[in-house]
Amino acid sequence: MTSRYLGNKNTKEFHDLQHQTPKCNISEIVERVYFTSEQQAKRAGYDPCDHCLEGSTR
Q1: Model confidence over 4-26: pLDDT tens digits?
Q2: How many CB atoms lie within 10 A of CB 56?
Q3: Which segments of 1-58 does DSSP mark as H helices, in order?
């Protein structure tokens, strides 16, 4: 199974790798964790990125 979502362990924010934008700064994420679904990332306490996913609570 492919990991579509990338979480930033420092900010506790996750990104959709199929809809990333330059504002996501994916290349700058050093502490990474991968998820197979949005639900998995949310259950782990990660918040969606406001640039590539809607629904950020930040």
Answers
A1: 999 999 999 999 999 999 999 99
A2: 11
A3: 38-43
